[in-house]
Amino acid sequence: MSAGMTADPSLRSVKAWPFEEAAKVEDRLKKTGKTAALFETGYGPSGLPHIGTFGEVARTTWVRRAFERMTGLPSKLIAFSDDMDGLRKVPDNLPNKELLVPHLGKSLTAIPDPFGTHSSFGAHNNARLRAFLDQFGFEYEFASSTDYYKGGRFDAALLRMAERHDAVRDVILPTLGPDRRATYSPFLPIHPDTGVVMQVPMEEVRPAEDLLVWVDPETGRRHGTPITGGGCKAQWKADWALRWYALGVDYEMSGKDLIDSVKLSGAICRVMGAEPPASFTYELFLDDKGQKISKSKGNGLTIDEWLRYAPPESLSQFMYQAPQRAKRLFFDVIPKAADEYLANLEKLKANPDPANPAFHIHNGQTNQPGSPISFAMLLNLASVVNADEPEILWGFIRRYAPGATPESEPMLATLVSRAISYYRDRVAPDKTYRLPTELERGALADLLATLRDLPEDSTAETIQNLLFEIGKRHAFANLRDWFGCLYQVLLGQQEGPRFGGFVALYGIAGTIGLVETALDRVAPAA
Hints:
Layout lengths: L16 H16 L4 E7 L7 H21 L3 E7 L39 H15 L5 E4 H6 L4 H9 L1 H8 L5 H6 L3 E3 L14 E3 L4 E5 L6 E5 L5 E3 L1 H12 L3 E5 L3 H14 L5 E5 L2 E2 L16 H7 L2 H9 L6 E2 L4 H18 L6 H5 L13 H11 L4 H11 L9 H18 L10 H15 L7 H14 L5 H13 L7 H8 L1 H13 L6
Parallel strand pairs: 1-2, 2-3, 9-10, 11-12
Antiparallel strand pairs: 4-8, 5-6, 6-7
Helix pairs in contact: 1-2, 5-8, 6-9, 8-9, 11-12, 14-16, 17-18, 17-21, 18-20
């Protein structure tokens, strides 16, 4: 449990979704009489943690922190691994796949580790999950389904589910096809000989005797399996309800694809005699074409790819914004998220507003290092100078921000490194310069003459104002078209940051060279 803090009830009125969700948790505790809140996130360890795992744990953490600030009550976050689930198929991205084939159907913690580093495949992936969460500094308590079932943590809840067996079935049966309906039970007994997690109908459920009676469909042999002590586990939706009931979970969020599962698990929880936790449904991510991201299609963006191109705080910024709106998750959103984070961090330093995303990303702290230069500006600079080493960019940065060093500006140093990677991988391969129109040629010639008369130490604001004046003088239908010309003709990209800031960073002499090159550029021969 995290330590309690002084309650601030005024935070209930803050227009920020973590506080709105925290209010739901507080209302639930008032009804139940509890004095501490339990938050949960779930994880299926047949695969490795991914960008969605980060999003769910980060978002739940923000609600948890908001709850503690608002109520002064302690809380805990459980990261629950369903590692007692049976392995239904061998994932394609594993080594030594032939090692797993004989063990299909067994619990993940009863299957050899194909990586050869842990006692089981489940233990290996659990370790990966914990390392993943630790990497980002999340506060959580790890929970293993195998440990909870075998250690007796679910025994009382399992017996309660057995007592309400028919009522639980009545919740699930209307959602199943006729064949599955005839055999469904919320219980999956563990085969005493093979260790396989069995999906078979129950001949008898005897809670008073702690017994499930079932028949092996292959051998015809009748078995009696204990309900408690790890002799069985619950089916997926019943298992979710079992956890909520047994542990007293107060809050859990999940994706839009699990809306029906949340409803059914909640109904089972009520059948067992408890209220399900407060819940929150977040939207799923789309690719750059607006299509649903699919592992099989490979059209997603991995967390390693994001962190190659921007700091983790930028990913938090992306996850924070509008979680109930479908968002495109692809490479082009990374620079924008990075600069939104930097802007919010500067706002937080000036005003500790709890509605600011940076407030939640940094748990209210304002002493985080920002950056005097935006990520988009660094990308533009890297693009113009074809940077492949940080020192190339630092030469320009020191002129723009005297005294700045990688040691004094750690966030800037991170951004410099990421900008070079982003430019090299994502910008350089597709970089193209378009030719200026006649209108644009006149404006660029005017810009060239203006720059030649400017002192080298002119401020970004002075340069930006002159750019506006030039655009107005040349009768662009929209000034956005003039700035689009600067990006596309001079820098070879569709858009960018304030151009006056770029000129101040790159230097007036260097910018004069860019304009001269653009005006000399001719169309390639047909």
